[in-house]
Amino acid sequence: MFWESEVMSAITVLEPVAPTEHESQLAEKSSRTLSYYVQDAEEQTIRVVPKGGKGEEVVTIPAIAFRLLVNILTQMAQGNAVTLIPVHAELTTQEAADLLNVSRPFLVKLLEEGEIPYRKVGTRRAQAISKVCFAGLRNRESGETRIAFGSVAPVPLRCVRTEMAIDERRNPAETLTVELSPIDDLRSTKEYRGRVAVNLLLQFLDAA
């Protein structure tokens, strides 16, 4: 899903890595070896042996992560560049074009013709000045949450009341709507900014 956005969102997308000839050969050999150990289970235990062979560490990982490693090595063995993208990641058209190794105009043409499904937030194709800025942080162990927004108040705002609503399992969307004070200007309306802010918050909480 591609996001040509005036809404800023932080995602982690690794740059595509094209293997060298030596790396492709190494990947081919290792993928063949590891493929014998792929298990149809939820967990898989592997042994990590440091260089020199002194000592080892036993690590249990999700079995699907092990299968993913084998798939990555298989692609590298074929000389293909490899990257990892979270399934929830939303990219700008330029990021998507770079990832697909095509020009941005070509990708935009495909999007406009309906060849690739996408979602667009914002009204401009250029001069992407942020209508709403969002930052969220959540500690998955403690559940502690930090929420902040920009362009929806006179100054960047940490939403303490919304954080409390999340901690107390109250409706955070309702609290956020009261806590923010967006304005109308040439770039957007306060209603639009408010809706986008709530959507960003809910998407963040769903993914966290």
Description:
The chain has 208 residues and is α/β, with parallel strands linked by helices. It has 3 domains: 3-15 and 85-121, no CATH class; 21-77, no CATH class; 132-207, CO dehydrogenase flavoprotein, C-terminal domain (Enolase-like, domain 1). The protein has 7 helices and 8 strands. It has a 4-stranded mixed sheet, with helices on one face. Strand 6 (132-138) and strand 7 (145-150) form a beta hairpin. Helix 3 (93-100) crosses helix 4 and helix 6 (172-179) packs antiparallel against helix 7 (190-207).
Summarize the entry for a quick read:
This protein has 208 residues and is α/β, with parallel strands linked by helices. Helix content is 39%, strand content 17%.
Could you give the distance between the termini?
19 Å
- Count of helices? 7
Percent of sequence in beta strands = 15-25%
Query: In angstroms, what is the radius of gyration?
Result: 22 Å
Instruction: Give me the CATH superfamily of the largest domain.
Output: CO dehydrogenase flavoprotein, C-terminal domain
The assigned structural class equals alpha/beta
- In the CATH classification, which architecture of the largest domain applies? 2-Layer Sandwich
The first-level CATH class name of the largest domain: Alpha Beta
Counting DSSP E segments of at least 2 residues, the number of strands comes to: 8
Summary tags:
disordered N terminus, 208 residues, 3 domains, Enolase-like, domain 1, alpha/beta, two-stranded parallel ribbon, 39% helix, 4-stranded mixed beta sheet
Per-chain topology:
Elements: E1 3-5, E2 7-8, H1 21-35, E3 43-48, E4 57-62, H2 63-77, H3 93-100, H4 104-112, E5 119-121, E6 132-138, E7 145-150, E8 157-158, H5 160-167, H6 172-179, H7 190-207
Parallel strand pairs: 1-5, 2-6
Antiparallel strand pairs: 3-4, 6-7, 7-8
